[in-house]
Design goal:
CATH superfamily of the largest domain: Zn peptidases
Largest sheet: 8 strands, mixed
Distance between the termini: 29 Å
Helix content: 25-40%
Number of strands: 19
Bound molecules: ligand BES, manganese (II) ion, zinc ion
Number of domains: 2
CATH class of the largest domain: Alpha Beta
Radius of gyration: 25 Å
Shape: elongated
Strand order of the largest sheet: 7-8-10-9-13-17-14-15
CATH topology of the largest domain: Aminopeptidase
Number of helices: 16
């Protein structure tokens, strides 16, 4: 994790300094001071540059100009409008990228936007947050460095008058970033390393020190309790399934009962999805290592909430299993009895996510009576056809919750879109021999999956399902989201909690 220091005075011996420039390269006040110290080197470089126009995401490196520093990095800030939180984050990300190219481990940042930031403390904190989120790479399994450049930057010193205020604003952001990184790590781990039991170990190791209580149900226990759906999914694997319940109590014991009712987050955790007996085609099957993305997000979210000591009671529940074909695997045609008592005819063993979620959702409602339940799952390929890789799909039994999710998503650049639910799609999953079947046919695949889940939502529970199949993994680099596991949902749900469920 990038270290961000906030200070009122320029650190001594800073080898690299970052300053800001606005429209057409107009230097900020601090940048002008640096320009003087270097005998006009900055203004000359800006003028001579053929690419730098002071636009957002542009940077100009001036090396060897003197003034006691090795490199001065000029960052463009002009977006044509007031900079949003996302813009400020991408500004921090741009600096980290430039530092990596320069093989530098840190810089001092003279925070003063040329266009006049309204709030310097907010600007500095957001800048540092964006820098931290960009500064991530998963290279646990590289034994040879491809090139010599440092993969990550170590420290930024942000120099501004309101240093104390910026530091305070940044403190929770750093915890959120740590949650995002935990999710990214989990999602990127290979499936021979991350399977239900090792997932449990990772979660315990990360969350127990933060005061999160963790309860684990073994296969035997789940079987005894009647969780036939998750058991059915795990049966074809030599790695037994697990259910993990994480309990974070951020409210005092004497808080009012209504406030203490928890918000529950449920994650699909298929550590590898071969499709089971309804085997997936070979090409791209490796991607199904990230079919535990929902569980990864719930784990990272719990880390963020507990890390920043959010004033909320939250439950995170993970339905962990590996979907494999073997002689003991569930067959197409089998009927499973879920924890709810409802029976499910399995017509396609590749529609396994909804099965593990069915038992986890029922269990968490039974045991904790949450006021709100939000599940996250890489549930359907169909949501990628509908929304691509930009938006997660929301399905809900409530009118307000989807609105709140969409707004929160806009705020943190994790976009979501409210999809419809209707009784026709519920009818589509009626079975001839059991209470329901686990597939609805070719049409509206994400919606029939949601209709299935809805049958496991109790009356009175406000519920939303986020289908994150298109957004849990990225094949392209974006400023604050490098390619690989994205950590999608941690920031979104943390923000939702802060805006709507946290005690003030
Ligand atoms: N994990 C997949 C969904 C998925 C597909 C996630 C592609 C990410 C990328 C899920 O378990 C699945 O296989 N769903 C099937 C459902 C179908 C059998 C009704 C699908 O989407 O094809
Ligand atoms: Mn599947
Ligand atoms: Zn799956």
């Amino acid at each position: 994790m990038l270290k961000a220091g906030f200070t009122g005075t320029m650190p001594k011996n800073a080898g690299v300094i970052a300053v800001f420039a606005g429209k057409k390269g107009a230097l900020s006040k601090n940048a002008k001071d640096m320009d003087k110290k270097t005998g006009g080197a900055l203004s000359r470089a800006v003028k001579a540059s053929t690419h730098f126009e002071g636009k957002l995401k542009q940077s100009l490196v001036v090396s060897g100009a003197g003034g006691g520093v090795d490199h001065i990095i000029v960052l463009g800030t002009a977006g044509g409008k007031k900079l949003s939180a996302t813009d400020l984050e991408s500004l921090g990300a741009t600096l980290v990228k430039a530092l990596k190219d320069l093989k530098q481990k840190g810089a001092a940042v003279l925070v003063d936007l040329p266009d006049g930031a309204e709030n310097a403390a907010e600007t500095a904190a957001r800048f540092a947050f964006g820098a931290a989120l960009h500064n991530y790479s998963f290279d646990l399994y590289r034994t040879k460095k491809k090139d010599e450049r440092p993969k990550t930057v170590e420290k930024l010193d942000l120099v501004l008058g309101e240093a104390a205020a910026a530091k305070k604003l940044y403190a929770p952001m750093e915890k959120i970033a740590a949650g995002v990184f935990f999710t990214r790590d989990l999602v990127s781990e290979p499936p021979n390393v991350l399977y239900p039991e090792s997932f449990v170990d990772r979660v315990k190791k990360e969350l127990t020190p933060l005061g999160v209580k963790i309860q684990v149900l073994t296969e035997k226990q789940m079987e005894k309790m009647g969780m036939g759906a998750i058991i059915g999914v795990g049966k074809g694997s030599v790695r037994p399934p697990r259910m993990v319940v994480m309990q974070y109590d951020g409210l005092p014991k004497n808080a009012p009962a209504a406030a203490k009712k928890p918000v529950a987050f449920v994650g699909k955790g298929i550590t590898f999805d071969t499709g089971g007996i309804s085997l997936k085609p070979g090409p791209g099957m490796d991607e199904m290592k990230w079919d535990m993305g929902g569980a990864g997000t719930v784990s990272g979210l719990m880390k963020a909430l507990a890390g920043r000591k959010a004033k909320i009671n939250a439950i995170g529940i993970l339905a962990l299993a590996e979907n494999m074909p073997d002689g003991n695997a569930t067959r197409p045609g089998d009927v499973l009895t879920s924890l709810s008592g409802q029976t499910i005819e399995v017509l396609n063993t590749d529609a396994e996510g909804r099965l593990v979620l069915a038992d986890a959702m029922w269990y968490v409602q039974d045991k904790f009576k949450p006021k709100v339940m939000i599940d996250l799952a890489t549930l359907t390929g169909a949501i990628i056809i509908a929304l691509g890789h930009e938006y997660a799909g929301i399905f809900s039994n409530d009118d307000d919750l989807p609105k709140h999710l969409m707004t929160a998503g806009e705020d943190v650049s994790e976009k979501t879109w409210h999809m419809p639910m209707c009784t026709a799609w519920d009818k589509a999953i009626d079975s001839d021999i059991a209470d329901m079947k686990n597939i609805g046919g070719r049409d509206a695949g994400s919606a029939t999956a949601a209709a299935f889940l809805k049958r496991f939502v109790k009356d009175g529970t406000v519920w939303a399902h986020l289908d994150i199949a298109g957004v849990a993994w990225s094949k392209k680099d974006r400023p604050t989201v490098p390619k690989g596991g994205t950590g999608f949902g941690v920031r979104l749900l943390d923000h939702l909690v802060a805006a709507h469920y946290e005690a003030k």
